[in-house]
Amino acid sequence: MKLRMQITKDPEIRFISHLEYVRTIGRAIRRAKLPAAYSEGFNPHLKFSLASALGVGVVSYTEFVEIELAEPMEVEKAAQALDNALPRGIRVLAADAVDTHHAALMSQAAGAGYRVTLPFSDDISKAVAEFNACQELLFKKAAPKTKAGYKEIDVKFYIPHLAVMQNEEKTIFTFDCKITPTGSMKAVDLLNALNEQYRLHLPVAMADIERLRLYRLGKKGQQLPMLNNDAVKL
């Protein structure tokens, strides 16, 4: 049996690393005394994983953890136990269960929805329209460990469409970003690409980035929730 839970990374812990986030969840699983399964070998570890890594500084209301259990447990009871064991900044929102041999949650994540808020009011409607109309937008992302020192990515492959809302104080972008077996792209890279391509002056360092949803794809390509429709809500 695998437990699947929708959890958060709230604003007060947005700057902890992904590794520390994972470690915190692992400690909470132990404190909750869930009958989690362990790997075999000289250094056994808890069998749990997250659906998709989240960048430092990004808030999320839609992270997902999958925990393999050594024995069955009532979903609502397990979800409540983990929620009680988690520190401030991480909450359990919903949970369900699938068979142990079901495809891993990580392999099903196909995309994420984001909202990016910036303290910026210059009119960028023309730039956004050009972005939505173009077929390709190549961006050289710094990659110090590579021979070239950068990695070229096609922003449009990952983010086909941008929506923007502006007022006298702020600019709000909303968009979906693909997640593939070979990776995805960060919201800050989108902002940097827009600045470079359209000579904008978006204050990237001041961006408030929120991941609003994570989804999988159905057989016909439709976006589906990560949990089953009958998932327990907390």
Strand content: 25-35%
Poorly predicted runs of 5 or more residues: none
Q: How many runs of DSSP E, i.e. beta strands?
A: 12
SSE class = alpha+beta
SSE order: EHEEHEHEHEEHEEHEEE
Q: Summarize the main sheet.
A: 10 strands, mixed
Q: Percent helix among the residues?
A: 10-25%
Shape: elongated
What distance lies between the first and last C-alpha atoms, to the nearest angstrom? 20 Å
Rg, rounded, reads: 19 Å
Helix count?
6
Overall mean confidence score, pLDDT = 94
Please give a structural write-up.
Helix content is 23%, strand content 32%. It has 234 residues and is an alpha+beta fold. The chain is built from 6 helices and 12 strands. It is elongated. The strands form 2 sheets. Strands 1, 2, 3, 4, 5, 8, 9, 10, 11 and 12 form a 10-stranded mixed beta sheet that branches. A hairpin with a 4-residue loop joins β8 and β9 (171-178). The two termini are 20 Å apart.
Features:
alpha+beta; 10-stranded mixed beta sheet; elongated
Short description:
With 234 residues, the chain is α+β, with helices and mostly antiparallel strands. The protein has six helices and twelve strands.
List the helices and strands and how they pair.
Blueprint: E1 2-9, H1 18-31, E2 48-50, E3 58-68, H2 75-85, E4 92-98, H3 105-108, E5 111-118, H4 125-133, E6 138-142, E7 150-154, H5 155-158, E8 163-166, E9 171-178, H6 187-198, E10 208-217, E11 223-225, E12 232-233
Parallel strand pairs: 3-10
Antiparallel strand pairs: 1-3, 1-4, 2-3, 4-12, 5-9, 5-10, 6-7, 8-9, 10-11
